[in-house]
Design a protein that fits this description.
Length: 79
């Protein structure tokens, strides 16, 4: 059987095998898979593309002149 493991998974498997006391090859594989599932670092959640945010909240700005709004905000900063 040829299985490609990450370096982390390979290390966990080697540690388990070094302990001894395991049964059949099937038992070793079952235990190794269970251990890997518990200890393998979780992958990062899927990232959201900035492009998916396009148009979000556009209804809030409907009917508002962008330049007039920015001018009002800047005036507020200056007091």
């Amino acid at each position: 059987m040829n299985i490609n493991l990450s370096a982390h998974s390979e290390k966990l498997l080697q540690e388990y095998l070094a302990k001894g006391g395991y049964g059949s090859p099937e038992d070793v594989i079952e235990h190794a898979l269970q251990t890997l599932a518990e200890k393998e670092p979780k992958s990062a959640p899927d990232k959201t593309s900035i492009l998916e945010l396009q148009g979000l909240g556009k209804e809030i700005w409907r009917g508002i002149d962008a330049q007039k709004y920015v001018d009002q905000e800047r005036a507020a900063w200056n007091g």
